[in-house]
Amino acid sequence: MIRIMRMNGMYGMSVSVNDDRTGGPVRTPLDVLGASGVDYSVQEHVAILGRDDAERELGLPTERLLKTMVFRAGETVVLAALPVHGKVHYGKLARAVGVPRSALRQADPDDMRSVGMVPGGASPVCGVEGVVTVFDVSVPDMGRVYCGSGHADKTVEIEAKTLVALVQPIIASLIAD
């Protein structure tokens, strides 16, 4: 499905993907952003797969890079967003979502596709019901941030407070000491 989306008052297109398990359309992060009316922009670039790629290829200020990690807790997909230099503490994340640590595992590519994302493109924005999103306590005060778009070759630039208002995540301490 092709959708028209609004970015900073301009219009563009976004493509929805199908959920392999149900065959129904999945709203991608860019679909959600486009429908929200919030102010953001998208930068296109070569595909990136991690922090090193982001720093080298994008040349963005690392203190403004927000990484999102995708996990499974049983049947639930969990998104954890934190500053790119932070390392997620699995126990803290498990407590934030109310599951035992042993229930958390990193998501696989099929899990990511089921929420409209690809490896290297994990986003804290998700249009799939039942997904639990947790932001580290530091995220709301990060100012303008760069985060995943669901695609490995596109990065979203958005105010952290706008992102928090849109996503309405659980806010918890996620970073390992």
Structure, explained:
- This protein is α+β, with helices and mostly antiparallel strands and 177 residues long.
- The protein has one domain: YbaK protein (Alpha-Beta Complex).
- The chain is 21% helix and 33% strand.
- The strands form four sheets. It has a five-stranded mixed beta sheet, with helices on one face. Strands 5-11-10 form a three-stranded antiparallel beta sheet. The protein has a two-stranded antiparallel ribbon with strand order 1-2.
- A hairpin with a 2-residue loop joins β6 and β7.
- It is globular, with a radius of gyration of 15 Å.
- It starts with a strand and ends in a 5-residue tail after the last strand.
- The N terminus is likely disordered.
Structure keywords:
alpha+beta; YbaK protein; 5-stranded mixed sheet; 5 helices; 177 residues; globular; 21% helix
Outline the secondary-structure elements:
Blueprint (H helix, E strand, L loop, with lengths): L1 E6 L2 E6 L1 E2 L6 E2 L2 H8 L4 E4 L6 H8 L7 E8 L2 E8 L6 H8 L6 E3 L2 H6 L17 E5 L7 E5 L5 E6 H8 L2 E3 L5
Parallel strand pairs: 7-9, 9-12
Antiparallel strand pairs: 1-2, 3-4, 5-11, 6-7, 6-8, 10-11
Principal-axis shape equals: globular
Rg, Cα atoms, Å? 15 Å
* Continuous helix count: 5
Structural class: alpha+beta
Oligomer designation: single chain
**Alpha carbon gap, first and last residue:** 44 Å
Characterize the largest beta sheet: strand count, sense, and whether it forms a barrel.
5 strands, mixed
Number of domains: 1
CATH architecture: Alpha-Beta Complex
Strand arrangement within the widest β-sheet reads 8-6-7-9-12
Give helix and strand order, one letter per element, not per position: EEEEHEHEEHEHEEEHE
CATH class: Alpha Beta
CATH superfamily: YbaK/aminoacyl-tRNA synthetase-associated domain
- In percent, how helical is the residue content? 10-25%
Low-confidence stretches: 1-22
Find the CATH topology.
YbaK protein
Kindly state the number of beta strands. Answer: 12
Strand content: 25-35%
Q: Please tell me the overall pLDDT.
A: 86
